[in-house]
Design brief:
GO molecular function, one term: hydrolase activity
Strand content: 25-35%
Organism: Actinocorallia herbida
InterPro entries: Metallo-B-lactamas, NDM-1-like, RibonucZ/Hydroxyglut_hydro
CATH architecture: 4-Layer Sandwich
Order of helices and strands: EEEEHEEHEEHEEEEEHEHHH
Shape: globular
Pfam family, one: Lactamase_B
Low-confidence stretches: none
Keywords: Hydrolase
Oligomer: single chain
CATH superfamily: Ribonuclease Z/Hydroxyacylglutathione hydrolase-like
Largest sheet: 7 strands, mixed
Number of strands: 14
Number of helices: 7
Mean pLDDT: 96
């Protein structure tokens, strides 16, 4: 396996957090294992790594009940069809994906949008899965206009795929106020384990680190892309995922 899996067990629930290598932007897929099934969160960027996740999930001996797409960035859904399960998302996320043309994964393999388009709508609020409460909440702004977070409140686990753990953030929309508002919305809740969309599982310290990162990113946001990249690497030398900055710079070149 080229990716790595961190396993977090809390009573009847086990979460398997798969993190792709650097050429997959260290994006994560979370596998929530309940007594009878597996619920997958996000479908990977590189199809090779989606296949790794699916093979790992099959090894658990339980069916993949559904795949939930947290938001409409391709690194979180290009491998969705590989899971062979119903695809769920927010209505807004489905619309954003539907508006895209066909894409390619980092290795150049073609992905038809129709193949990864969510067909089911996530119902916000709390749902019981095998008797275990899962909470679904809509976030607005920050990394992207619409995103979904999933919590296991009884186990104090938060799955926030728009959060990164010491992996450079996607700030192409320059919505620093939205980012901070979402952090402030979550920071006082009682979650002990935070499962991010990029990087390893972490804890509540991630909120302070993200807030500090956004302060610095906001200060340098007016620079050209190359200067912004250099300054962020200098200020956060231990952070990985510089490729995320490169992709943002390529999509939004300096005038």
């Amino acid at each position: 396996m080229k990716g790595k899996v961190t396993v977090i067990s809390k009573g009847p629930v086990t979460v398997h957090s798969y993190q792709a290598p650097a050429d997959g932007l260290e994006v994560t897929t979370q596998l929530i294992e309940t007594p009878k099934r597996i619920i997958a969160i996000d479908g990977q960027y590189k199809l090779e790594y989606a296949d790794e996740v699916v093979a790992y999930a099959k090894g658990l001996g339980k069916p993949i009940d559904r795949l939930i797409i947290s938001h409409a960035h391709p690194d979180h859904f290009l491998g969705a069809a590989r899971f062979g399960a119903p695809i769920f998302a927010l209505r807004e996320t489905r619309a954003a994906i539907a508006a895209m043309a066909d894409l390619k994964d980092p290795s150049g393999r073609e992905v038809r949008i129709d193949d990864v388009l969510p067909t089911e709508t996530v119902i916000l609020g709390t749902d019981l899965v095998d008797g275990i409460p899962l909470s679904f909440e809509h976030l607005h702004g920050g990394e992207i206009a619409d995103s979904l977070i999933i919590a296991l409140p009884e186990h104090r686990i938060l799955i926030a795929q728009v959060v990164s753990n010491r992996v450079h953030l996607w700030v192409a929309d320059r919505d620093f106020a939205g980012w901070k508002a979402n952090i402030e919305r979550l920071v006082n809740r009682r979650y002990e384990t935070i499962l991010p969309g990029h990087g390893e599982p972490t804890d509540r310290t991630v909120w302070r680190e993200l807030y500090d990162y956004l302060d610095v990113a906001g200060d340098f946001a007016g620079y050209d892309g190359a200067t912004y990249k250099a300054k962020m690497i200098e200020r956060f030398p231990g952070w990985t995922g510089v490729e995320i900055i490169d992709i943002a710079n390529a999509l939004h070149p300096a005038p």
